[in-house]
């Protein structure tokens, strides 16, 4: 019985988070009340307070539900990636981000809320520190790969690993933001993978470009190519 109660509690928590996501997306975070979330979830306001201290805690739980798995998948893409080519690993990482936003509705809606539906003031201002830490960590991981690319003679002359990492950070942040409102696909959605490939190709030394194309072709023909 205790196990069932725990499972029911977790299901209620997930239901509340899902309802909050829909309400935040519809009304914006500031204009959404706990009463509205409770009604959408089919629970009492007291049930929300059983699981979450306040609206901010609920917002962070909604964010972490998709952000942490995405970070974990991104870390895996950066660390293992494709063969030993660090620039293809950068490309693979960016492809993982695009695939996740494209295929996972909860992730897509959460990013829309974080980008367009939340005012980072008051109780939510500390989330800016969290975003700063996440972006700094990602930049440093990208810089590590670009340093490896430079050591292997793959990085185009005149580009430093840190500037390449910062450029990729700005690229993926902008790509995600534009993807969110590009509903007709005329800006980035229909050719996001091509934009990713072109971005990374711009970092590659000319002498290394042909080898990268051959590796990409082998990857596309491999049995596990569809997996990320």
Instruction: Tell me what the CATH architecture of the largest domain is.
Output: Orthogonal Bundle
Percent of sequence in beta strands: under 5%
Provide the helix percentage: over 70%
The largest β sheet comes out as: none
Question: How are helices and strands ordered from N to C?
Answer: HHHHHHHHHH
Give the class-level CATH name of the largest domain.
Mainly Alpha
Rg calculated over all Cα atoms: 20 Å
According to CATH, the fold-level topology of the largest domain is: Tetracycline Repressor, domain 2
Shape: elongated
Low-confidence stretches: none
Short description:
The protein is mostly helical.
Set down the secondary structure blueprint.
Layout: H1 2-27, H2 34-41, H3 45-51, H4 55-79, H5 86-103, H6 105-116, H7 126-151, H8 161-181, H9 192-201, H10 206-221
Helix pairs in contact: 1-2, 1-4, 1-6, 4-5, 4-6, 5-7, 5-9, 6-8, 7-8
């Amino acid at each position: 019985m205790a196990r069932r109660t725990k499972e029911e509690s977790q299901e209620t928590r997930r239901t509340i988070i899902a309802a909050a996501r829909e309400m935040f997306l519809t009304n914006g975070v500031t204009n959404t009340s706990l009463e509205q979330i409770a009604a959408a979830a089919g629970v009492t306001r007291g049930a929300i307070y059983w699981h979450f201290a306040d609206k901010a805690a609920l917002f962070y739980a909604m964010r972490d539900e998709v952000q942490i798995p995405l970070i974990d998948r991104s870390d895996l893409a950066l660390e293992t990636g494709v063969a030993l080519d660090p620039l293809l690993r950068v490309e693979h990482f960016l492809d993982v981000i695009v695939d996740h936003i494209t295929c996972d509705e909860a992730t897509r809606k959460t990013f829309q809320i974080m980008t367009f539906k939340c005012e980072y003031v008051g109780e939510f201002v500390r989330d800016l520190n969290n975003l700063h830490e996440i972006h700094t960590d990602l930049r440093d991981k990208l810089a590590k790969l670009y340093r490896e690319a430079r050591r292997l003679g793959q990085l185009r002359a005149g580009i430093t690993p840190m500037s390449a990492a910062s450029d990729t950070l700005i690229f993926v942040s902008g790509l995600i933001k534009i993807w969110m409102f590009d509903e007709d696909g005329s800006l980035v959605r229909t050719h996001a993978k091509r934009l990713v490939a072109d971005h990374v190709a711009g970092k590659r030394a000319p002498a290394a470009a042909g080898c990268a194309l051959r590796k990409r072709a082998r990857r596309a023909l491999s049995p596990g190519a569809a997996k990320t």
